[in-house]
């Protein structure tokens, strides 16, 4: 069983929008774009314990906090989910609520006039439509909500006092037992693990208890009975027994107590099973020590690995192919190698995994067709756009997984031909920021710009369509070619938001020709005594400017790339933005201007509009 589509209306920051899921899905986008909201929406529809939280939703769960319209009528939160690939048991249990679904066109077949002709087509399947509805109940002065089978509504008597019937407009509730059959598990962002590892309802340990078989029901009553029947009893402690006798004697003057010594007593606890859920804690002894401590006293990384261990347990208990697993930011407090391991595990062991992340180590584990890029405009309309796999070739993606992962997380991408250019632009950006001030210029890192090394001469043009398919603002910078570009390369360059052809053949020539000679002299004086200084001539401070420039060019060409970082060291000698090469400064200023015209976390404007803004 898996989620195929989720549609959200009036929930938190989303006024309306929908996302399609094609098996395992990675949700990416800027901060506050709606990733966590999607996970919470799934939990409202599918989480077995979520609706037992009181209140189910509150004022802040409504878009812009508005739960009444201008006439005082309640505004509804509506979350619609469509489940497909149903198990035989699910088809049997939910048979009266299923609809035929075209999985290629993503539409219900029975909506069409010729539905019977397509009901048994190759891409037709049974789907289960579900609906969560939440709103303010004026009569109760409270917020209510529930999940329903989203089949056609029945006629409802407006005088009917049944809250669930009025809320769902005659729909049949989709109960906790129904939801357990779906196997939905939601692991929120782990910063302390306090709830995930507690025994609170819906926690991972609670899920393990429920899936583990018999005995969970009797466990709580047995525990409470053991607390009350400690041997020796708490009340037999000498000091407490004396107090108990005094209380019984003095109370007996005013109240008719039961006869005998047992009319008063001390017990270990008056806890209920709900109290026990709150206070029972897992203790762990981690090396090098042997002392058991509450799990919360472990390091954050250890806590997350403990959660990971529980996930493996749940997958085994639940029959892995039936689990719909939503997970927020698995990278929190985990080192890169563990991030990769956790991600590979959930992709292999869960029936469907829906993951949010800002980590390239997580993102690189997903194939392009599994990645959905989220955008939300100023009105709160959400869109989820999968990567265009026709534009992003699988071979190219596999070869440069890490770079693509960083680009997917960025607001914009600057594509350059080699590692020399990739290393010098951040340095130039730092000089721009220090010289012009943060109000006038935003550093590439803070602006969310990823630098992509295309890997060689002539490679920049072919990436224009790639990053256009990712929905990114994209900028390209390439060396002056030896021969005219082909018509195909010229067309691909047009896919960039803006691109620049270098005025020279080679970035080294651009640098030494467009920088004051004083900067070049400072650079040579800095590197002349380095152990990796190339054997191309010794720097003489008394040399004429032309010889200094020629020597610097030889040094830079002999130490190309980011392994030695000589080009970046040359740029670092600039004391202000005016000393930077004009071409480099123009590129950085243009990117800054383009991003300033696009508010962060809002979908980019059309390309022609940006071109107008950029002049």
Automatic annotation (TrEMBL):
A Pfam family hit: AAA_15
Ranges where the OLD protein-like TOPRIM domain occurs: 409-479
UniProt domain Endonuclease GajA/Old nuclease/RecF-like AAA: residue ranges: 1-62, 264-363
Superkingdom field: Bacteria
Name used for this protein in its record: ATP-dependent endonuclease
Organism annotation: Afipia carboxidovorans (strain ATCC 49405 / DSM 1227 / KCTC 32145 / OM5) (Oligotropha carboxidovorans)
């Amino acid at each position: 069983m898996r989620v195929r589509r989720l549609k959200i209306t009036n929930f938190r920051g989303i006024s309306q929008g929908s996302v399609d899921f094609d098996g395992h899905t990675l949700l990416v986008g800027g901060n506050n774009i709606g990733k966590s909201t999607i996970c919470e929406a799934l939990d409202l529809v599918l989480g077995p314990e979520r609706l037992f939280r009181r209140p189910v939703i509150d004022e802040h769960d409504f878009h812009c906090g508005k739960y009444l319209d201008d006439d005082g009528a309640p505004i509804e939160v509506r979350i619609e989910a469509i489940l497909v690939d149903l198990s035989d048991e699910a088809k049997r249990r939910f048979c009266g609520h299923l609809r035929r679904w075209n999985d290629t066109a993503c539409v219900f077949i029975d909506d069409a006039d010729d539905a019977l002709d397509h009901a048994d087509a190759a891409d037709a399947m049974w789907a289960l439509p579900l609906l969560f509805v939440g709103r303010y109940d004026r009569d109760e002065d409270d917020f209510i909500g529930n999940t329903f089978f989203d089949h056609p509504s029945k006629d409802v008597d407006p005088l009917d006092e049944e809250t669930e019937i009025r809320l769902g407009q005659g729909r049949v509730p989709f109960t906790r037992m129904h939801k357990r059959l779906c196997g939905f598990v939601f692991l929120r962002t782990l910063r302390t693990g306090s709830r995930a590892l507690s025994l609170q309802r819906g926690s991972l340990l609670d899920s393990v208890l429920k899936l583990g078989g018999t005995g969970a029901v009797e466990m709580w009553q047995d525990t409470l009975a053991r607390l009350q029947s400690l041997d020796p009893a708490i009340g037999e402690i000498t000091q407490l027994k004396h107090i108990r006798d005094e209380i019984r004697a003095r109370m007996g003057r005013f109240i008719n107590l039961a006869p005998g010594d047992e009319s008063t007593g001390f017990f270990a606890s008056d806890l209920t099973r709900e109290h026990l859920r709150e206070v029972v804690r897992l203790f762990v002894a981690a090396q090098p020590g042997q002392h058991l401590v509450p799990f919360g006293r472990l390091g954050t990384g250890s806590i997350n690995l403990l959660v990971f261990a529980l996930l493996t347990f749940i997958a085994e208990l639940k029959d892995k192919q039936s689990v719909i697993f939503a997970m927020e930011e698995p990278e929190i407090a985990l080192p890169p190698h563990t991030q990769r391991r956790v991600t590979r595990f959930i992709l292999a062991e869960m029936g469907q995994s829906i993951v949010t992340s800002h980590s390239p180590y997580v993102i690189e584990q997903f194939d392009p067709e599994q990645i959905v890029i989220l955008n939300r405009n100023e009105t709160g309309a959400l869109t989820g756009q999968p990567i265009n796999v026709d534009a992003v070739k699988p071979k190219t993606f596999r070869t440069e997984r890490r770079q693509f992962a960083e680009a997917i997380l960025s607001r914009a991408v600057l594509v350059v031909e080699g590692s020399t250019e990739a290393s010098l632009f951040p340095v130039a950006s730092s000089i721009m920021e220090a010289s012009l001030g943060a109000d006038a210029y935003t550093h590439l890192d803070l602006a969310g710009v990823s630098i992509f090394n295309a890997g060689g001469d002539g490679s920049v043009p072919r990436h224009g369509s790639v990053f256009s398919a990712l929905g990114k603002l994209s900028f390209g910078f390439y060396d002056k070619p030896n021969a005219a570009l082909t018509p195909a390369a010229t067309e691909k360059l047009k896919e960039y938001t803006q691109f620049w052809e270098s005025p020279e053949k080679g970035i080294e020539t651009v640098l030494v020709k467009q920088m004051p000679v004083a900067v070049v002299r400072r650079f040579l004086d800095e590197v002349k005594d380095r152990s990796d200084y190339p054997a191309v001539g010794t720097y003489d401070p008394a040399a004429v400017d032309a010889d200094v420039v020629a020597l610097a060019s030889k040094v830079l060409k002999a130490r190309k790339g980011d392994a030695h970082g000589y080009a970046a060291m040359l740029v670092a000698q600039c004391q202000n933005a005016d000393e930077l090469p004009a071409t480099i400064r123009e590129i950085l200023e243009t990117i800054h201007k383009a991003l300033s015209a696009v508010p962060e976390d809002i979908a980019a404007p059309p390309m022609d509009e940006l071109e107008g803004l950029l002049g």
